[in-house]
Amino acid sequence: MVTKLIVILLSAVFINNYVLSRFLGICPFLGVSKKLDSATGMSVAVIFVMLMATAVTWPIQKFLLDPNGLGYLQTIVFILVIAALVQLVEIILKRYIPSLHKSLGVYLPLITTNCAVLGVTILNIDSDYSFIESMVNSLGSGLGFMLAMVMFSGVRSTIEGRDIPKSFQGLPITLIAAAITSLSFLGFGGVIENLFA
Amino acid sequence: MNTFKNLTKGLIKENPVLVLVLGTCPTLATSTSVINALGMGAAATIVLLCSNIVISALRKVIPDKVRIPCYIVLIAGFVTAVQMLVKAFAPDLDKSLGIYLPLIVVNCIILGRAEMFANKNKVFDSAIDGLGMGLGFTLALFLMATIREVFGNGTFAGLEIPVLAENHISILTMAPGGFLVFGLLIACMNKFAKHKPKKKSFGCEGCPQAEGCSKNGCGEVKKEAEENGN
Prior knowledge:
The structure holds two protein chains of two kinds.
Chain A: H1 2-15, H2 26-31, H3 36-65, H4 74-96, H5 98-104, H6 108-111, H7 115-126, H8 131-159, H9 171-186, H10 191-196
Helix pairs in contact in A: 1-8, 3-4, 3-7, 3-8, 4-5, 4-7, 7-8, 8-9
Chain B: H1 3-8, H2 24-30, H3 34-57, H4 67-89, H5 91-97, H6 108-118, H7 123-153, E1 155-156, E2 159-160, H8 162-166, H9 175-192, H10 218-229
Antiparallel strand pairs in B: 1-2
Helix pairs in contact in B: 3-4, 3-6, 3-7, 4-5, 4-6, 6-7
């Protein structure tokens, strides 16, 4: 049981990394990764929302939609729940923990349309995870997102100010750097299964 | 009179993927094979067309303050319908697109067009705009998928290509290849597209990621675009 949870956690962080191998959440990955502090802020907000969203959507799917044969409403219900949740979290943070709101606040509205959050909730249902496994998978996915963002902000600060061919300036060189970063993550493939086999 | 222009602007000049750089997630993820790319492109085009028509028809009914949630619900409805149709008539495609089919909901292109075009224009124009943008998205996906499948797998839409099949560069079909090909394509676009559209013409308004984008909000983009324009 515990081994299974560890395998889920580690594979979500390294092998099935949301950004670098599943291509979810590319917009914030390319947009917010320029500076280390904004990359960390965004990632923390994403981890937080992913966990909250899973905690809410899993029971909804299992206890509300499935027993009533409404499984096809999954997409609509999940996106609404995530949007409402993000709003709620923002209001609560603003009222009770203003310091945290100050540091995460700007990133929260962006997360509604972050496909990684909707992706993780749907994937948890698709993979038939139990509630605890879903939560662990969400945590791992969030941590993987953070790892990719923080690593990549380091890579980007190195690119900054270099002499790059004109047509490669801006997005193209960023994408090629992302390709190389993603290449390094391919090396993790198979490691985790072998560790616990 | 501008109908034709309206239709073709999405193909090259304002190509949603290669020029406006929206909807990168599905582009990178589903361009591993030509069939997947065409399936994804068709699904997104249908959703875009329907959502543009309905949002444009309802543009006077939907209150301004709650328009974004309304759009999301409408889009999610169409996505669900498309998802069910694909599941029923093309189960193989459903399997290979997997999670990316429901994720059309959060595709920036669709919400972006609703916000930028459909809620300001007539139904017919919005339909044409949606069709054009959808075709542009499909074209970009097709282009990327062709490069990735032909060189990465040695096949085109499943048909083997004699020499390349034995000497394929399999990294191109894997995750890093997606970033690499996309980066190179945008670089080519920068090199050869002489009429770079001013960012102002699209702005960040339609992009839900605008606040977090590297430009620190739309004001800076507008300023930059104006400076570039002058």
